[in-house]
Amino acid sequence: MISFKQLPLEAKAAVAAGMVFFSMILSRSYLAEKLDLRMRHWVLRLQMALFANTLMLMGSLHVWRSTVTMFTRSSAANSLCFMLWKIAVFMFLALAHSSFFTLLFLVAEEPYFFSLAAYTCLGAYIILIFFLFTLGSVEQAYKFLVGRGAKAGTGNKNRTAMKPVLAVMLTLVLTVVGLLNASQPPTVNSVEIPVHKLPSTMTNLKVVLLSDIHLGPTVGKTKLAMIVRMVKALKPDLTVIVGDLTDAEAEIIRPAVEPLGELDSPLGTYFVTGNHEYYTSDVSNWFELLKSFNIQPLHNENVKIVSPKSTDDWFCLAGVDDIEADVLRYSGHGMDLKKALRGCSSEHAIVLLAHQPIAAKWALQERPDINLVLSGHTHGGQIFPLNAGAYLLNPFFVGLYKVGQNTFVYVSPGTMYFGIPMRLGSRAEITEIILRSA
């Protein structure tokens, strides 16, 4: 039987990841009643950071071997340039691994430079792993198709050496492009949506949709103030924030949230939770903070949005808790559509705020009379190559979808970004929705 010491490093990392994952399950089962909510969720977030790092360790070993070890026998191995290259690769990997811990220890009114650097390295790490894997697969396919021959020649060695060089060059280019793209203000996307049974007096009603701002280690007060200025310039009748506003506790990041107090939509500003609000384990304090800025959380509840032209005309605006609250066993929270739509009948138009597209799908299966669902969560994939995974894992990916005869779903690609300050294959968006009576 092979002992743990005899296992290759990648296998040891996989075993460590499995142990951390097992500890997460045990913690949920045996510590649920022994720790208060905040401590329990802090432990969970620490375990998630450790789990991600142990998984990343397998990729980091591959990166090191591909970009450093394979060149140690070359003529330049003893040069100063190669020594500096080894240090650069090591620092790159160390920063990428540290990114998950900045979420726990380095959150303030404005992002720390270390956090921005760490998450940038994490984004570059994901891109680099993808290209190393893809180019390696192409190389193996080429060898299989043409045959290896009796001996590996100089040409084969050169092709092998070119693989990490090409991967690094592509990663550098895409990282710069992604950083520049994410540094731009969100685009304003105007969308007209026909809403069945919307009163004619409410046609042309303007709703601004925000989602996935992710105040935390890489998004601070300056970016939020920019978003608020852009929203005010649109002069919406109604503003909605569909979750993942924050990644930190309310007390820690309160100064960064102050610009939200300047939102002054005549028909109100409303908020529903996303999965990241529950990761903070501080939802109640966030609700109170948002209320102090005249932003009303819809905690499995609804309000009547009354026409400015006639008090007899209105539609039902409802919001549900994010489904992650059920997974995390967050007391008093969880998606409850029946409670959220209590008093909302099919005689009036119904607009539902639900953070995750899967929640939108479940809601429409239960209540097909909902006319419009506004969601976020996917970020449009945020960066290549994560776009494909986000597309496959969500029933609605990004943009406008028609479901049945009288129902629409709109999924925002996010107003900022989570952690990694990069956008590749997606663009941050403030959505201006014009409601039309239909």
Write out key terms for the chains shown.
438 residues; alpha/beta; Purple Acid Phosphatase, chain A, domain 2; 2 domains; six-stranded mixed beta sheet; 12 strands; elongated
Helix and strand layout, with pairings?
Layout (H helix, E strand, L loop, with lengths): L8 H22 L6 H31 L12 H26 L7 H34 L7 H30 L3 E9 L9 E6 L10 H14 L3 E5 L7 H8 L11 E4 L2 H5 L3 H10 L2 E3 L3 E6 L7 E6 L4 H4 L9 H4 L9 E4 L3 H10 L5 E4 L10 H8 L5 E5 L3 E5 L17 E9 L1
Parallel strand pairs: 1-12, 2-3, 3-4, 4-5, 7-8, 8-9, 9-11
Antiparallel strand pairs: 2-12, 6-7, 10-11
Descriptive account of the structure:
- This is TMPPE metallophosphoesterase.
- InterPro entries: Calcineurin-like_PHP, Metallo-depent_PP-like, Metallophosphoesterase_sf.
- It comes from Onychorhynchus coronatus (Royal flycatcher).
- With 438 residues, the chain is an alpha/beta fold.
- It folds into 2 domains: 4-182, no CATH class; 186-437, 4-Layer Sandwich (Purple Acid Phosphatase, chain A, domain 2), CATH 3.60.21.
- Helices cover 47% and strands 15% of the residues.
- The protein is built from 13 helices and 12 strands.
- The protein has helices spanning 9-30, 37-67, 80-105, 113-146, 154-183, 221-234, 250-257, 275-279, 283-292, 324-327, 337-340, 357-366, 386-393, and strands spanning 187-195, 205-210, 238-242, 269-272, 295-297, 301-306, 314-319, 350-353, 372-375, 399-403, 407-411, 429-437.
- β2, α6 (221-234) and β3 (238-242) form a beta-alpha-beta unit.
- The longest helix has 34 residues, at 113-146.
- The model has no long low-confidence stretch (mean pLDDT 87).
